[in-house]
Automatic annotation (TrEMBL):
One cellular component term from this protein's GO annotations in UniProt: cytosol
One Pfam family this sequence matches: Hydantoinase_A
InterPro entries in alphabetical order: ACX-like_C (IPR049517), Hydant_A_N (IPR008040), Hydantoinase_A (IPR002821), Oxoprolinase-like (IPR045079)
Organism: Rhizobium loti
MF term (GO), any: 5-oxoprolinase (ATP-hydrolyzing) activity
Start and end residues of each Hydantoinase A/oxoprolinase domain: 216-500
Domain of life: Bacteria
Residues in Acetophenone carboxylase-like C-terminal domain copies: 518-683
Protein name: Hydantoinase
Biological process annotations from GO: glutathione metabolic process
Residues covered by the Hydantoinase/oxoprolinase N-terminal domain: 17-193
C-alpha cells in the first residue's frame, strides 16, 4: 500500500514537458518528466484525412505505456506540416492581391529566373494568385517614404467587389516602398475590413517589412494562402488539448528554430512553414553540444524527404530565401537543404528502362508495401527489407510489423522489368537514393565552403540511421553519431527550443559616423519591439538580443548579413562595424575592398527567451565487447553475408563492435556497413568511425 501511495503522490507531483512533431508519415513524441529526468518517446502513424487525430492517439498511448498524465503537462511544443503541405498540394485559400496600378505582373515576373537553367524542359510554377485576381490600385509611395498619390478608395471598393465575386476568401495588400512607410497599406487594409468584414486581410509590411516588392509580396502571399487551414488546425488543437485537461498553453516551433504561442501562429502562419525541419536541426544542435561535437552535418530522413543542415561551433546556420515548394520565403529560417528521397520514396522504371527513386512518396497511407497497409509499389524501405537490413523487429514502437514477402513482391516487379535479381534491384534502389543525397550534400558543402571530412554526420528521423552510414562512407566522412532516440529528434528540438522572434528595419543608409545615430535609433526601436514580443509570449525572464545588419558595397545588387555586437553602436566610431563587414565579405567571396564605400540596408534583431535547461543522463563508459542478439543474412551489395544484430537497449556505455551489423530499436533501425567501428558513449550515442 505504501508503494501505491508513493506512486500516486509522484504522479500528482509530475512535471511533464512534451515535444511533438508531425511529419509526412509519422507524428513523433518526446516527453520528459522533469522531476525524475525520465524520457518517454513514441511514434504514431499520421492521419491525413483528420489532421490532429494522431496527436490525441499519441497522448493516449503515452498515458497507457509510460504513465504520462496530460493534466500534469507544463510545457507543450508542437511542430506541424499543415502549412507546408497546403502549399505543396496547392490546397490553400483563394486569394486576391491588391498592388500598385501598373505593377500587377510582379508576382508572375518574379526574378525572371528559371528553376533549373540547365533543363530544356524546365517551367516556372504557376503563381498562387492567378492574374485575374490581381488588382491594381492607383496609389504611390516614394522611396523616401513620402506620399506621391493617395490610394484611390473608389478603386479599392470596386476591387473588393470583384475579388468577392471571383471567390476570394482573403486579400493581400502589397504596395511599393511599404517597408519605408506602411501607411498606405494600413489605410487600404482598414477600408477592406469595413467593406468586406468576412474576408481576412494581410498587408506585406505587417508580415515582413523587407525591401524588394517581389520578396515582400511572395512572403505575404504564402502567409495568407495557408492562413485558413493553419488557423482552423490550431483552433481544433487548442480545443482537443483543453478536452484532455492539458493546462499548458500550446507553443509552436518556428522556421527560425524558436517558438511562438498558438495565438500568434494563427496570424503569423508563415513563420511556422519550416517548423519541422528547423526543430530537427535545433534538436541535433542540442545533442551535439551535449556530446561535445562542434561540427555536424545533420541528415533527417522521414517518409518523404531527406533534409541536410550544417552545425558549426555547436550552432545551426541561418539564412533567408528558403524555398517552400516552389516559392521563396524571405524570413529568417534555419538553413536546411532538402531532396525528395525518403523512406517512403517510390522506385519506378521509366520508358527508357531507367530505375528512378522519388520524389513521389507512399506516405503513411498506403505506405511502403512492407507495411501491409495496401501499398503495392516498391519504396526505399522495401529495398532495405529485401536486402535484409530491415524487418527483424517491430517498428514505430510496436505499431508496424514488417511483411518481407510483400516487400519482395513489390521490388520483384521492378526486377522483372530490369532483368536483375530482386536483391540486385533492391541494392540499386539504395545506391540511387544515396547518390542523390550525395549530390545535394556536395552542393551544400560547396555553398558553405566547408570540408565535410572535418564534420561528423548525425543521422536521425525514422530513415536517417538506415542510410546515414552509407552516405557518410561515400562522402569520405570519418565519424557518424546516432542519438539514443534518433526517430524523435525533431520532437526533442521543440522541447529544448527557445522563444525566438525576428524583427527587421530597412534603413538604406551609408555607413558613417553621421548616420550612426539613426542606426542606433532603429536598433533601439527593434529592441523595444523584441522585448514586447517576448512579454506577449509570457516570458518574464531575461532576454537575449542578437543584432545583425544586411550590408553591401555601393553598386552591389545584393547584400550579406553581418553579425554585430550591440556595444559597437554605443560609440561614435563605425570602424568595428565596417571591419566586420569586410571580414565577412572576405570569408564568403575571398575578396574585400578596404577602401570601398559601405551601405547598410537592413537592421535585424532576434529577441530570445531561453527555454528550459535540460540535460541528458550520463553513465561511465566501461570497455566491453557487445554481444549480438543473433546473426542474420544481409545482402551487402555483392553477396549475402552473415552479420551481427544488436539490440540498442542492450548496448551500454563503452560497448564496442564492428560492421557490418544491424542495430534495432523502438523507433528506427541502424544499418552499419563494413569497415565501421562502433562504440556507445556516456550519453548512449552510437558512434561510428571509419578507417582511413
Amino acid at each position: 500500500m505504501d508503494g501505491a501511495i508513493a506512486a500516486d503522490e509522484a504522479r500528482k507531483q509530475a512535471d511533464w514537458k512534451v515535444g511533438v512533431d508531425i511529419g509526412g508519415t509519422f507524428i513523433d513524441f518526446c516527453a520528459l518528466e522533469a522531476n525524475s529526468g525520465r524520457v518517454a518517446s513514441l511514434k504514431v502513424l499520421t492521419t491525413p484525412e483528420d489532421p490532429g487525430a494522431e496527436l490525441m492517439t499519441g497522448l493516449r498511448l503515452l498515458a497507457e505505456r509510460e504513465g504520462f498524465d496530460p493534466t500534469r503537462m507544463t510545457r507543450f511544443v508542437h511542430g506541424t506540416t499543415v502549412g507546408i503541405n497546403t502549399i505543396i498540394q496547392r490546397k490553400g485559400a483563394p486569394l486576391a492581391l491588391f498592388t500598385n496600378a501598373g505593377f500587377e505582373d510582379v508576382i508572375e515576373l518574379a526574378r525572371l529566373r528559371m528553376p533549373d537553367m540547365y533543363s530544356l524542359f524546365c517551367s516556372r510554377p504557376d503563381p498562387l494568385i492567378s492574374r485575374d485576381m490581381v488588382f491594381g490600385i492607383p496609389t504611390r509611395m516614394r522611396a523616401d517614404g513620402s506620399e506621391s498619390q493617395a490610394p484611390d478608395m473608389v478603386a479599392v471598393e470596386k476591387a473588393v467587389a470583384a475579388a468577392k465575386a471571383n471567390g476570394a476568401l482573403g486579400i493581400i495588400v502589397c504596395f511599393l516602398h511599404a517597408w519605408r512607410n506602411a501607411a498606405q497599406e494600413a489605410s487600404v487594409k482598414a477600408a477592406i475590413a469595413r467593406l468586406a468584414p468576412d474576408l481576412f486581410v494581410f498587408s506585406s509590411a505587417e508580415v515582413w517589412p523587407v525591401v524588394r516588392e517581389y520578396e515582400r509580396s511572395s512572403t505575404a502571399i504564402l502567409n495568407g494562402y495557408v492562413h485558413p487551414r493553419v488557423s482552423s488546425y490550431l483552433t481544433a488543437l487548442e480545443a482537443r488539448l483543453k478536452d484532455r485537461g492539458v493546462p499548458a498553453r500550446p507553443m509552436l516551433t518556428k522556421s527560425n528554430g524558436g517558438l511562438m504561442n498558438a495565438a500568434e501562429g494563427k496570424r503569423a502562419c508563415v513563420n511556422m512553414l519550416l517548423s519541422g525541419t528547423a526543430s530537427g536541426v535545433i534538436g541535433a544542435s542540442w545533442l551535439a553540444r551535449q556530446a561535445g561535437e562542434n561540427r555536424i552535418l545533420t541528415l533527417d530522413i522521414g517518409g518523404t524527404s531527406a533534409d541536410f543542415a550544417l552545425i558549426i561551433d555547436g550552432e545551426p546556420q541561418f539564412g533567408t530565401g528558403e524555398l517552400i515548394g516552389e516559392f521563396p520565403l524571405h524570413i529568417p529560417s534555419v538553413s536546411v537543404s532538402s531532396i525528395g528521397v525518403g523512406g517512403g520514396s517510390i522506385a519506378s522504371v521509366d520508358a527508357q528502362t531507367v530505375l528512378r527513386v522519388g520524389p513521389e512518396s507512399a506516405g503513411s497511407t498506403p505506405g511502403p508495401a512492407c507495411y501491409g497497409r495496401g501499398g503495392e509499389r516498391a519504396t526505399v524501405t522495401d529495398a532495405m527489407v529485401v536486402c535484409g537490413w530491415l524487418g527483424h523487429s517491430e517498428m514505430a514502437y510496436g505499431q508496424l510489423r514488417i511483411d518481407t514477402q510483400l516487400a519482395h513482391r513489390a521490388v520483384g516487379d521492378l526486377a522483372a522489368r530490369l532483368g536483375r535479381t530482386v536483391e540486385q534491384t533492391a541494392q540499386a534502389i539504395l545506391d540511387i537514393a544515396v547518390s542523390e543525397m550525395f549530390v545535394e550534400v556536395e552542393k551544400l558543402a560547396s555553398r558553405a565552403g566547408v570540408d565535410l571530412r572535418d564534420f561528423t554526420l548525425m543521422p536521425f528521423g525514422g530513415g536517417g540511421p538506415m542510410l546515414g552510414a552509407f552516405l557518410a562512407r561515400e562522402l569520405g566522412m570519418k565519424r557518424v553519431m546516432a542519438p539514443r532516440r534518433p526517430g524523435v529528434v525533431s520532437a526533442l528540438g521543440g522541447l529544448v527550443a527557445d522563444l525566438r522572434g525576428d524583427f527587421i528595419r530597412t534603413v538604406f543608409t551609408p555607413l558613417s559616423g553621421a548616420t550612426l545615430p539613426a542606426i542606433r535609433e532603429a536598433f533601439e526601436a527593434l529592441a523595444h519591439e523584441g522585448r514586447g514580443w517576448l512579454a506577449a509570449q509570457g516570458h518574464d525572464a531575461a532576454a537575449e538580443l542578437t543584432l545583425s545588419c544586411d550590408m553591401r558595397y555601393f553598386g552591389q545588387s545584393y547584400e550579406i548579413e553581418v553579425v554585430l555586437s550591440p556595444e559597437w553602436l554605443t560609440d561614435d566610431d563605425v570602424a568595428p562595424i565596417e571591419q566586420a563587414f569586410h571580414l565577412t565579405h572576405q570569408r564568403l567571396y575571398d575578396f574585400h575592398d578596404p577602401d570601398g564605400e559601405v551601405e547598410l540596408v537592413d537592421i535585424r534583431l532576434s529577441a530570445i527567451g531561453a527555454g528550459p535547461k535540460l540535460s541528458l543522463p550520463e553513465t561511465e563508459e566501461v570497455d566491453v565487447a557487445a554481444i549480438p542478439a543473433r546473426r542474420l543474412p544481409v545482402y551487402t551489395g555483392l553477396r549475402v553475408e552473415t552479420v551481427d544484430l544488436h539490440d540498442r537497449q542492450a548496448l551500454v556505455p563503452g560497448s564496442t563492435f564492428h560492421g557490418p551489423a544491424v542495430v534495432v530499436q523502438e523507433d528506427t533501425t541502424f544499418a552499419i556497413p563494413a569497415g565501421a567501428q562502433a562504440r556507445v558513449d556516456r550519453h548512449l550515442n552510437l558512434l561510428l568511425t571509419f578507417a582511413e
